[in-house]
Specification:
The protein is mainly alpha-helical and about 400 residues long. It is about 65% helix and about 0% strand. The longest helix has 23 residues.
Length: about 400
């Protein structure tokens, strides 16, 4: 089975980077099918720029413009600005294409072997399409976390710090890039650049507004996120995480999520004690995979569009290790692709999708199993490169 997959992905046409980019851009075009049908997220994003320019609250409801409210930081006003200035249809089209190219380029520039890149492009395609239909910035978050890691690997700590701070100031998720701090060869330089970019990006939105306004909006943002976390716990569309999976399958809503989050953090941190493994790239890449999975599994804000992040993590976990993967890991990856990758797809009957997968947050199940497997491997396996004996 594995050899057949390799042969399929190794076909010159299916592994050509220009063909793959073209296919991903077609997915971005498919995202336009939601224009005027389910483009509310883009309207919210667009509004962030205009409300910043006009000096009105970024976190109030504007029912005449869109439903729901914005939950992104003030610096997002500059990220979305080029797309907000265009006519709505053109802005949305270029936004979707921009997100797609951003993630495609992050994978391409990562330095991963070509075969691994091709596997990621194919394996993550359905999750990418889901995120594109929702116009979500989670696509960029996946690219930001990936770029943060590989820029540190390439000793470009200044740019790594930029992406960590950008992701944090837009959606907080980017802060997980600090998990790669221990792998930096220039830790003092990284800290300095983190401080510099924090000041720059904190002040940047003041260019299109004013200092008092932006400082006030950061305060509102913190209050908004605290309130949003409370809403997410019992939300049907949010909390598609390990936290939500446990709540919905047990039916128990009265306990604190800290009972799961604290052990999760400890389990996540445990492999860091194996300092002797730091020298192995496979070990460091598996930490990257763990970060990409953890940010979805232990966040009440996890939603369908966020699974592009988790599936990217699953791909890296599967391919990074120096040993041969067995049938059970292949079966788990198939399970991840079908349920976590396609769980929100119309290819799955509506009754199953709504009454089971969404109701019980079952998309989190395969990636949860994968993350626990990953943690076990990181605590017990040797990630040193295997040297093949000469015949």
């Amino acid at each position: 089975m594995k050899e057949k997959i390799k042969a399929f992905l190794g076909h010159p046409m299916l592994s050509n980077r220009y063909v793959l980019l073209g296919l991903w851009l077609l997915l971005a075009l498919a995202g336009m099918l939601k224009y005027h049908r389910s483009d509310n997220n883009f309207l919210i994003f667009r509004g962030v720029f205009w409300h910043t320019v006009n000096g009105t609250s970024l976190y109030e409801a504007y029912p005449s413009e869109y439903w729901d409210v914005n939950h992104y930081g003030p610096v997002f006003s500059l990220v979305i600005a080029p797309f907000a200035l265009l006519p709505e249809w053109a802005g949305m089209l270029l936004w979707l294409m921009g997100l797609t190219v951003w993630l495609y380029a992050a994978v391409y520039r990562s330095g991963l072997p070509r075969q691994r890149q091709v596997f990621i492009y194919w394996f993550c395609s359905m999750a990418l399409l889901t995120a594109l239909f929702m116009q979500q910035f989670n696509i960029a978050i996946a690219a930001i976390i990936l770029s943060s890691f590989y820029l540190i690997e390439k000793e470009h700590d200044g740019w790594a710090a930029f992406f960590i701070v950008l992701g944090t100031f837009v959606k907080l998720y980017g802060i997980v890039g600090l998990a790669f701090f221990f792998f930096s060869k220039h830790k003092v330089r990284l800290i300095m650049w983190l401080a510099v970019w924090s000041v720059v990006l904190f002040c940047a939105p003041m260019v299109i507004s004013s200092p008092d306004y932006i400082i006030g909006q950061y305060r509102e943002w913190i209050d908004c996120l605290i309130g949003k976390n409370t809403e997410n716990i019992n939300s049907f569309a949010q909390n598609i995480s390990l936290l939500g999976l446990v709540r919905r399958t047990t039916g128990c809503m009265t306990y604190s999520d800290l009972w799961l989050i604290v052990p999760g953090i400890l389990l996540f941190a445990l492999p860091y004690l194996r300092r002797s493994q730091y020298k192995n790239l496979a070990f460091r890449e598996t930490i990257l995979a763990s970060v990409l999975l953890f940010v979805i599994l232990f966040s009440t804000g996890s939603e369908s569009s966020g699974y592009i992040i988790a599936l990217l993590g699953a791909c890296i976990w599967y391919m990074a290790v120096p040993w041969q993967r067995g049938r059970w890991t292949i079966a788990l990856m198939v399970f991840v692709f079908i349920l976590s990758g396609m769980g929100n797809s119309d290819l799955i009957p509506k009754t199953i999708r709504h009454d089971y997968i969404q109701t019980y947050a079952l998309r989190a199940l395969p990636v949860s199993l994968l993350w626990f497997w990953l943690c076990y491997e990181m605590c017990t396996k040797d990630y040193a490169p295997t040297i093949k004996k000469q015949p």
